[in-house]
Specification:
Layout (H helix, E strand, L loop, with lengths): L1 E4 L5 E5 L2 E5 L20 E3 L5 H4 L2 H8 L2 E5 H8 L4 E5 L4 E3 L4 E6 L5 E5 L2 E4 L4 E7 L2 E5 L9 H7 L4 E5 L8 H11 L3 E5 L11 H10 L3 E2 L7 E3 L3
Parallel strand pairs: 3-4, 4-5, 5-6, 12-13, 13-14, 14-15
Antiparallel strand pairs: 1-2, 1-16, 2-3, 7-8, 8-11, 9-10, 11-12
Length: 230
């Protein structure tokens, strides 16, 4: 299984002929190496409706005839554009054949600015637990630290978690270290940092701190990949 970090919170997971991308933000992302035209996937998972998580969802979906999976309101919005979608809600699970995805809580906001003075509410934000063969991954989406992360960790044997560390708009590094502990993740890749001036962090320092508390820390540069063995 190959995990590719596209920068910000965008993660692509590939095994064999199957591939999914989470929160595609390549166009307009100053840290991204790839463009949306380079992405080949069957599914697009969206944690919430902010532009730095949805920017290339439509383009990638059209180019690949891919299905967008998101909360009901966000999925409905994209269905009105003529795209294939599956709407979910918190606590629900979905079998996509080669993997099973479950939508879990996140504490953030979710809305799309369609024009000046108009913001469309797009349902609750979330994260995805992905069970793929014998591997369990968790993309928390944008979130602050919250106590039910302990429950998520107790109910899922998480091999790899993607945790935001940018602060200001999400958890910062200190809270993300606590999240890693509560989730009981075996390994963590930091996300949602260094894209904008307000969320500048040192991912290597964070990875070292994870190692010191017994969690494998993996700091990836945009465009880099990590091979995860089940």
């Amino acid at each position: 299984m190959i995990v590719k970090y596209h920068g910000h919170s965008c993660i692509q997971i590939t095994e064999g002929e199957h591939s999914v991308i989470i929160d595609p933000f390549l166009t307009g992302n100053p840290t991204a190496i790839a463009g949306p035209e380079e992405v080949k996937v069957q599914y697009i998972l969206l944690t919430h409706a902010h532009g730095d998580h949805t920017a290339d969802a439509e383009a990638i979906a059209r180019a690949n005839d891919a299905t967008i999976i998101a909360t009901y309101e966000l999925a409905t919005y994209y269905s009105w554009k003529g795209l294939k979608t599956i709407g979910m809600n918190i606590g629900g699970s979905l079998d996509i054949g080669f993997a099973k995805v479950k939508l879990v809580h996140a504490f953030h906001s979710s809305g799309m600015i369609v024009e000046k003075g108009q913001i469309l509410y797009m349902g609750m934000p979330g994260g995805f637990v992905i069970d793929w063969n014998d591997t369990t991954l968790l993309h928390t989406g944008d979130t602050g630290l919250f106590g039910d992360m302990k429950m998520i960790g107790e109910r899922h044997d998480i091999d790899l978690a993607f945790l935001p560390i940018g602060d200001l708009l999400t958890m910062g590094p200190e809270d993300a270290l606590t999240a890693a502990e509560w989730l009981q993740a075996k390994a963590v890749i930091p996300i949602h940092y260094n894209t904008f001036p307000g969320i500048v962090q040192d991912p290597d320092k964070f990875a070292k701190a994870l190692d010191e508390q017994g969690v494998k820390g993996i700091a990836l540069s945009p465009g880099a990949s990590y091979e995860l063995n089940s």
